[in-house]
Prior knowledge:
archaeoglobus fulgidus dsm 4304 fold; six-stranded mixed sheet; alpha/beta; 3 domains
Amino acid sequence: MSTRLINVDRNTPMLLPPDLRDWVEDDDLVHFIVDASLQVSAESASVNHRGCGSAQYPPSMMLALLLYCYSQGIYSSRKIERATYSNVSVRYLTANHHPDHDTIATFRTKNKEFIKQAFVTTVQIAQELGFTKLGVMAIDGTSLRADASKKATKSFGELRRQIEDICADALDEAEVADTAVEQQECRPRPTKIKIEAALEKIKTAHAADKAQRAELTRQVKDSGVGTPPLPTAQEVPEAKLVNLTDVDCHAMWMKEGYSAPGYNAQLAVDTKTLLITAATIADSCVDSHQLLIVAKESQKNCRGAVHTVVADSGYDNNHQIHELEVKHGIHAVVAVQDPHRISTKYKQSRQRQRTRALKLKRIEELGTPRGRELIATRSCSVEPVFGTIKQAMGFRRFLQRGTAAVANEWTLVSAAFNLKRLLQLLAPA
Length: 429
């Protein structure tokens, strides 16, 4: 009896079907992303309203292209361009068009507000479908690598001495070449320009930190709760570190057990549906001053539906907890850091007494069944979301540089995650 095998003929030309939907399954994520992208208003999208030049790709199509590729773990603009040729779902999404990598990268850079609106739309879609009724959000942060090398990290003192050496070398070269010093100064070296820009960035950031700490001190004194931050030194410390490749990144301790340039990525996650309701980038490597920022962003995106936030002891900040509950009406359940070290001295200022009373009240609440339940929901809601983003979606390193660009990329990743999660929630049990 002869064996029957399928004839695999690679030489006969094969045309695409008249309808590209014939090549894509009905339950493919691409259909849902295309429909969701059409719900985002394109008023904030960056387009050429003059109509001159070549025809433009529709903003909704470019947005859907980014969201789908990010949901599939494709982040590089060059890889996204290749996917428009090799990936059938992407080819259906673009209707057999092929935007080049420069067009994709430019769209991602210039449309931060449009991408932000797309993320908020995913949250609002979840609300309309009735998936975010509880209003309990778990907040946490994670360390993600920056697009920078650890070797490019230098201290402020080291950079300043390096600038002095470069200037001295330039003077020596001018004397040897018997040319005017002014001619050398009119052609600054690229390395010198880069270092000077980094030094100026450090000084600007130091001045902003001083102003922020002064404002926090004023707020703490006005509220009468919390401990004022330590004052900042008048001059920039010699040991202050900066990365020449990405001056906005910080030295972060990674989960793998090493230190590297990175960003502190923050999320607020609905404990019922595991949908992301806020995605921000912290301005430091610690979480202690991020609770108020992330909670307010979550409440804004959810149109005021947030009534409780849960966080670990890294967010133990009495002033911010007090601000959330008094000014914004959000109840904060935050694990207490070092609960056994609360001062019991008799002579205390009124502010210290109020701070101690607030912390004791929180400890008492954490001991109740409801408090233990809320703290337990944090680890089984926001932690799996970080795991999915890092493991399943493969996002462990930012491809953009600068806080604004990194925040835009983090918003894009969060929107792609929400769309995947929404499709799972809508699937029949």
